[in-house]
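SAMPLE LOG
Freezer: B-3
Tube label: C17
Construct: single chain, 164 aa
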Amino acid sequence: MNFFYALIFLFSFTSIFAQASFPEKCLGIWAGTMHIYSRGSLVDSVPIKLNVTRTNAPDTFIWKTEYLSTKNPMVKDYKLVISDAGKGVFKTDEGDGIFLIDYLFENKLYSVFETQGILLTTTYEWMGNQIIFEVTSGKELQTTNGVKSYSVLNLQKVVLRKMN
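STRUCTURE (predicted):
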């Protein structure tokens, strides 16, 4: 019986350690081409870079994404903050007082939020030498018996590979 409890403790400790080290696994500069789909069709592609670095605060990482579009270049200079490592809870600090709550399961970080009537889901999945970053968006379609349905109209997806 003690062996059983030791296994549970070991599994819990390993799970917490793996979740707490997620941002550290992503340190470095990553690059790839984001493919942008609307209603199932590819409409654009944009080269992007993700730069993940430490800050002076042990629980905060720079999470900077550069969209290297010739038409509409932009930089999302965010911070990823470890909120509760044991529970796999993080916060994305977008600046201007905007914080998104993120949840880590194994090696995948999830965030779901709504802005201006649009529901967005973002994921970052770390897979060794690559990070898969996806954003989906859509709007509420209907509510039936208390269940809301949402469309998925747009997808942005990029496989990022480590540059350094």
